[in-house]
Amino acid sequence: MSFVRNNWYVAGWSHDFAAELVSLEITGQRLVLFRDRKDKLSALEDRCPHRLLPLSKGKKIGDTIQCGYHGMTFNGSGVCVRVPGQDNTPERANVCAFPIVERHGVVWIWMGDPALADEAKLFDIPELSDPNWHAHHGGHLHIKAHYLNVAENLVDPAHVSFVHPTTLGNAASENVPVHVATEGEVIRAWRWIRNAPPVGFFKEFGGFTGNVDRWHYYDLHLPSTAVIDFGSIDCAENCAEEDRDKGVRVFAIHFVTPLNENETIDHWMHLRNTASGESANAKIDGLLEMAFAEDKAILEAIHEEEQRPQSRRPVRIAIDRGPTVYRKRIREMIEAEAVDHLGEPVAPVFVDGNT
């Protein structure tokens, strides 16, 4: 498996989880999520320990899930609280419970060793709590591709000129070099395009008609959360890099969640320093959805081709520095995790949600 287990992954937005049972998959593990009567969200292994029917095929009763086959019932901590027809509960009847946190309207699940789950490791940036910035939860883009390819795309400004020529890029940036910094915990790739026509996004949203200075900063937080800081400002302002807030500035945040080796969900949202309101939300959503659909088509075509026999290794070029470092760090993170005797990551163990 090529997944980092000991990390938080996004399951969706808080409003995606209401009274009903929700089944989903993360890093090859099937989960069932549900809220109790106090609105607390729980995440359990989606498999009854008796005959292995997914618990999501059962029903919620109060603060518990009842298996739809023989009625074994489990609370939000995974403890079996009822076996119909007998008074005792088998010692091995419990199911795995996964640490879960809601913050900024985002639902996070820890997929590794519960003892190592640390809320201090949850992704955060100051703008999410800044009242001067407007946050909007966008959509969930299902991509039939390996998550490493999806994440690599999010530390690669160079593709914008060619994949998004009418939305986020144009020909003016084709030969502008990409800078990469890999020293810290975050891999950053960036470039400025000076005194160039505005791209389609900022023609629509920023109202620019003359030439602008525009930027792309791609920050990849391991294992797979990306912040794309992009914006434009009238080139007459001669904007310094640290003064980007003076322009129209948008953060597209991508929480890339691996479902399995062949499928990925990109949970995306955006932050902006201007234009609050639902009409602006809808307009930006529409523009970003066009661009992300372009990425999806490229990534799925690459994944399909990767499944075919290969006669040679892919060529690497100068713009691949960020993705190359990313792959190396992911390998190091996986190797650093505890493994069992088969060389596979250790599965989550049962945790008591009350401790």
Instruction: Tell me the strand percentage band.
Output: 25-35%
* Radius of gyration using CA atoms only: 23 Å
**Given the structure, what is the number of helices?**
5
User: Shape, please?
Assistant: globular
Low-confidence stretches: 345-355
Instruction: Please give the share of residues in helix.
Output: 10-25%
Sheet having the most strands: 7 strands, antiparallel
The helix/strand order is: EEEEEEEEEEEHHEEHEEEEHH
Major beta sheet, strand line-up: 11-17-16-15-14-13-12
Ends: how far apart? Answer: 30 Å
Mean pLDDT equals 88
What is the number of strand segments?
Answer: 17
> Given the helix and strand composition, which structural class is it?
alpha+beta
Q: Quick gist of this model?
A:
With 355 residues, the chain is of the alpha+beta class. The protein has helices spanning 147-153, 160-163, 200-204, 278-306, 321-336, and strands at residues 8-13, 22-26, 29-35, 41-45, 59-61, 64-66, 73-75, 80-82, 100-103, 106-110, 134-143, 179-181, 186-196, 212-221, 225-234, 248-258, 264-272.
